[in-house]
Amino acid sequence: MEDARSGDYFVVKALESGVQVIGLTRGQDTRFHHTEKLDKGEIIIAQFTDHTSAVKIRGKAEVMTKHGRMESGS
């Protein structure tokens, strides 16, 4: 199994207050496992791991990955 420390990193920057970053689990049943709430201007640096396969973002935010930048909530 892949070493969790080698998972891809991503950055989420809140463009408004109340942005939610929600981690989703791996496996047969996808479930929420962690939520962070960001205020305008705050950033979070996160990583995909053995437990986190996807991230859901609610609100207006800039997302930066090795694949480029995108904006949610536009």
UniProtKB/TrEMBL annotation:
* Pfam entry (one): TrpBP
Q: Which GO molecular function terms does the record list?
A: RNA binding
Gene3D superfamilies noted in UniProt: TRAP-like
| Keyword Transcription (UniProt) | yes
Matching InterPro entries: MtrB, Trp_RNA-bd_attenuator-like_dom, Trp_RNA-bd_attenuator_dom
Q: Some GO term, biological process aspect, for this entry: which one? A: DNA-templated transcription termination
Domain Tryptophan RNA-binding attenuator protein, chain residue ranges per copy: 6-72
The signal peptide annotation in the UniProt record is none
**Keyword annotations from UniProtKB, A to Z:** RNA-binding, Transcription, Transcription regulation
Q: Which family does it belong to?
A: Belongs to the MtrB family.
> What is said about its interaction partners and assembly?
Oligomer of 11 identical subunits arranged in doughnut-like structure.
Q: What is this protein called?
A: Transcription attenuation protein MtrB
